[in-house]
Amino acid sequence: MNSDLLTRRSLSLFAAxxxxxxxxxxxxxxxxxxxxxxxxxxVPTAALIAVGAVVVLAALRAFTDRKFWQAAFGLVxxxxxxxxxGSTGQAVDFYLPSVLIQVGTGAVVLVSxxxxxxxxxxxxxxxxxxxxxxxxxxxxLRRYQLCTAVFLAKCTIATAVxxxxxxxxxxxxxxxxxxLLGGAPAAGLCVYLCxxxxxxxxxxxxx
Length: 207
What we know:
Elements: H1 3-16, H2 19-40, H3 43-64, H4 68-88, H5 96-114, H6 119-124, H7 138-168, H8 171-181, H9 184-199
Helix pairs in contact: 2-3, 2-4, 2-8, 3-4, 5-7, 7-8, 7-9
């Protein structure tokens, strides 16, 4: 797979899952909730403010991009976090879904590596008429395993940081860590590293 095709496919996948607006909504909800909670000290109020912010972003997406399912998915995700925190009265519970996502994603990624069906290969490795041909190419399989391991490392680090903070009830550090490790910054770094791994290949070796 040449670098131009890899770049186009990566951008297409990024757009399919919502692009920069999904990133903005995810980050905004966590930032807004944390700031609102620090200012008000009231969990339900902070949760409602966070939901309100995402409602505005989702409405803008729905009316400008006509991507209703992506807007609805982001809104439902934030609403679930807000409902959980509001029902328990514990601010840290707003970030519990983020913690569970890191744990669950890490487990799935690990299994995909162990069984030699790396998730990155499943996402970017398919070709017309030969969807799983990359598994017969040892070099491509090795690179996809390595890329998937990058995401495993990210999930492992995030889990190791987020879980103790959640258990300890430390809202501010948990909120910041959730934004950095469970959100766009860490995911973006992983995507960049994978792009470099698949792009920078020895002469004569196909990615």
